[in-house]
Amino acid sequence: MHRTAEYDTFADIYDVWVEMAPSAHRALPFYVEAYLSSDDPVVELGVGNGRIALEAARQGKAIVGVDASAEMLRRCRERAEALGVADRLTLIQADFRDFQLPEPAWLIAIPFHTIGHLVTPEAKREGLRHIYSQLAPGGRLILDHFIFRPEIARQHQAPSLRTEYTDPQTGHDVLLWVLTRYNFETQAMRILAWTDELDDEGVLIRRRYRRLSFSWIEPDQMRTLLEEAGFEIEALYGDFDRSPLTETSPEQVWIVRRPERP
Ligand SMILES: C[S@@+](CC[C@H](N)C(=O)[O-])C[C@H]1O[C@@H](n2cnc3c(N)ncnc32)[C@H](O)[C@@H]1O
After folding, report:
1. What is the CATH number of the domain that holds 236?
2. pTM score
């Protein structure tokens, strides 16, 4: 089943988007090391355009990537071919709640806050139960999410210029804007990102909107969902350097395991 994938319209700005996200850079070596040190099969859910998976593949690791977006997967495949690592990559177009692996995984990772795309608690519960079913007994799940700060959220409710860049395809300058709407009761978020493409005189040629459904989750809520799905908690960190979770930590980084015996 392929639901409409919001990232199909986001794929062309994904690299610029990530460039401006410090946590994405901190996450990269953490996940690559986890992939390289795990037994096979290693699976990345929300593999996207292969930002993390291809780095591990370049270092010799076979990776299974799952993603709902045909366009993100197309870009991932194209990059894998350009890097000469396509034979180390198995890509599956599917939702986190119904992907089927050829064999049970030793490691499933959901990097870069991607669990938040399962917006409701029910969707997260369904996803985590399904992930559990796709792991080998004793296999691990690693995932992260940002720590929600209301004061930062309030700032993000106003439009802001995320970056300016020149589109290499058209040569046009582009302004990338973003605004996030928050539902503080349901913990749902709606990200609006739009690009303004300008001609040489700065006149607007084209404005294009993209929208993403997202959410946040508190560490206590995450712990409950993980335990309800049957996982044993191995570690909880406050950032990708494996520092402890404290009141000022930017991230929650979970390492959990499907028990050997239920
Ligand atoms: C934030 S990107 C992360 C990409 C990559 N892991 C990285 O760190 O750069 C999230 C990815 O998850 C995919 N995604 C979001 N919700 C999904 C779902 N319910 N099922 C499958 N893929 C999903 C999106 O299509 C997108 O490619």
Report:
1. 3.40.50.150
2. 0.96
